[in-house]
Amino acid sequence: MYSKLNKVSVPLIFILLFCSIVFAQVSSSTLSGKITDADGAMIPNSTVKVRNVVTGKELPVRADSEGNFRVENLAKGIYKIVAGASGFSEETKSVSIDGETGSNVIFVLNVGNFAESVTVTATRTQVATIDTAVPVSVIDRKQIEQQNLNTIGDVFRSLPGTSTVNEGAFQVRPKIRGLDSNRVLVLVDGERLNNGRTSTGLSGIEVGLVGTEQIETVEVVRGSGSVLYGTDALGGTINIITKDAPRNIDDGFRFGGTFNGFFSSNETGRRGNVSVRGSSKFFSFRVAQSLERYENYFTGDLDGRMLDGVDENGEVLNAQSHGSNTQITTRFFFDNDNDLRLNYERRRGANIGVPTLVGVFNAFFPFSERDKFNARFETRNLSKNLARLSGSFYYQKQNRNFTNILDVPAAPPFFPGLYQFSETVTDTNSVGFDLQSNWILGSKNFLTTGFSFFRDENKDKRFVETFSPDFSVFPPRLARRVDNSPSVPNANFGSFAGFAQDQFQFTNRLQLIGGIRIERFFSNSSPTNDFILPAILSSEQIAALGLSGLATGLKTSETAVTGDFGAVFRVTDEISLTGRIGRSFRVPNLFERFFTGPGSIGGIVVGNPNLDPESGVNFDTAVKFRNSKFAGSVTYFNNTYRNFLVNTLVDDTIPVGLFQTQNVGRARIQGFETDAEAPFKIGLGFLTPSASVSYLRGDDLESGEPLDFISPLKTVLNIRWTNLNSNYYADWTTRIVNKQDRLSAAFFTTNGGAEPGFVTSDVSGGYTYRRGDSYRLSFNVGVKNVFDRFYNEQFVFAPARGRSFVFGTTMEIN
Distance between CA atoms of 375 and 366, rounded to whole angstroms? Predict the structure, then answer.
């Protein structure tokens, strides 16, 4: 299958190139303008970004000493013009270019420090976050550097509506609106990081599989993304956008380089990255290499507590990880409207521990690796109506070894002990392509259409060595047994899909957005050496559980149709009302359909080929406000789900228990998310207080009991000072998570009571020195968990980090 796709991808690029030559048009429209302050005075050397709404192409321009700017040879379309200057908030205007006459715009900038946030994930085209019908958070490179993150997963602790699962520098996973694992879709440069082999509820894809220093932007869309991205986007979509190799618009060839360094005192964590790049009008490249190493971390003040997996000094055992990351990116610019991007990423993780799992039961990942190659060709302005056409192809290989050791001490003379070593290697190869077109259907109608395909092919290898008691002799002795049967048969999972989304500017203030997706899924297993059903199962049980044929190969397929509809209404230039209703879905993956064997948390687990997709109806509505003095939003959401997949006890006559994933019940998760910030000019800088509040409520609609694993109320308070030129900054952040005692009766009992709340604070500051656009040197320092509080992230067993002094530096030469 892969060889066929490689044969298809090369002709596809040449077809797109041919289309661009045949249909390309020459445009001579001119955009000019002037930038002033509120008193009418010109603002010299201000910056202007001219962005085509449909194609996403952006042209950076610098105004002259009189505040004038001019851009020539613009194609027909709708453009967003963003003007800004040091000490002023950015202002945005929309301009329609008809392809024949020019346009002139006047910007009046007000004192402030607001910058426009742009997302490509919410609509598959570049759009300002204030103009989207779904809530979006965008974290740029500057924020990533200033937060001094151990891993990119840490960023989700403070965003509205998000939290985290797990601890450790590699394994932190995001949680959106109470859902995690494969119910959150993680993309890298718009392509799936999720794969069909990881389990749901017990595991999931780690965002640690992407090197922190290689990330340019993280976009978090809260709410269903099924129409644009397909399965797994129940709770939300995260798009991790890596650093690119930009074009040099000037004559000649330009070289540059960057060094990033990071140190954290708590776990003696260190990370370093070096990159070099070069660019001309026709070609650019970027090569980067990073290394990282983290030892065991330490908790906050134990105050006499004794915890499993934590020594008397507060060291959390088995929390270490090592890693490296390589990225090679090249781009070819055939002309102003046609370019080809080739990218290779190599991520290596080794000796990755599972914090606190030591002693009788020990678990770790000897390695977790990812290799990815992707190619994307993009052509713009093909005809009067076809503004953009892009085609991308990727091949990704994920290799992971999960090892656990069970070591029960002997109690002579009657019990000789028990020892089991289990190693499972999952080898998942993914291939996919995506074809997208953007159409201008009149001056008010923009249509995005596309076709996508992906296929995950998985092979498991397993080795289990057990030394168990032989009670047929006295005193009992240990007998060795070896098992090489894989947990999942050789199998593949994938889909073909077509989608369309239309954005219609109904009036100057009302925009309507609607989309539909039709997707055909397939899951196939094949006969696999050594894969067998547990001998403990009778033929009647096999038939009753739907497992007939599982060991000899099965094929399943299904079709999912989903859609959504939203609106953005500009009440004034400063206030927007948004709303959206849509359907979401998630198709069972290879783990849920085929996994058969001992479960990682006990019992025997068997697959279920007859599962139905999880689905949901998602409603969001929001009020957004922004001017030069204040920005904020309030969002209410109500998501109702059915056919949730749950690992269920199906037979308690077997001594260890027999479990199977099944569709059960209906659930509702609702709540609100709000954020606000207001800068005040004080002397030579800005003092900016900001806050976000998120509230979640989950209900099992079948039993009437609360849903577990839902954090109820999170508040994040921040105050920041920056000087007018943004060279210096200092900020204080406090995160408050309220106690969760709204739990089901069974969970409340097994949990030993309510899930405690906590308060933790961070402080940071830094300095950046710039010499024009050619040199940048920055230092960022901070203290995480200032008061050394002991706490656990809610529903996470391992305790969180204690106090840590962090330091990061960036040196960039252009």
Answer: 31
Under a CB-based contact definition with an 8 Å cutoff, are residues 20 and 337 in contact?
yes
pLDDT at residue number 575: 93
Burial 448-469 (b: 16+ CB within 10 A, else e): bbbebbbbbbbbbebebebbbb
pLDDT category, 136, cuts 50, 70, 90?
very high
User: Which among 193, 175, 195, 197 is positioned nearest to 184, based on CA atoms?
Assistant: 175
SS3 content of the chain, % helix, strand, coil (to 5): 10, 55, 35
Distance CA 309, CA 292 (A): 24
Its pTM stands at: 0.92
Burial of 396 (0-12, 13-18, 19+ CB in 10 A): buried
The partner residues of 569 in beta bridges, in order of sequence, read 510, 577
pLDDT at residue number 210: 93
Buried b (16+ CB within 10 A) or exposed e, 129-145: bbbbbbbbbbbbeeebb
**Spatial distance between the Cα atoms of 290 and 323, rounded to a whole number of angstroms:** 8
* The two three-digit tokens of residue 176, written as one number: 């959106």
**How many C-beta atoms lie closer than 10 Å to residue 292's C-beta?**
24
CA distance 805 to 784: 6
CA atoms of 287 and 256, how far apart (whole Å): 11
What is the average pLDDT value for the chain, to the nearest integer? 88
Give the separation between CA 322 and CA 211, rounded to whole angstroms. 12
Asked if omega into 598 is within 30° of 0 (cis), the reply is no
Q: Give exposure, 257-272, as e/b (b: 16+ Cβ within 10 Å).
A: bbebbbbbebbebebb
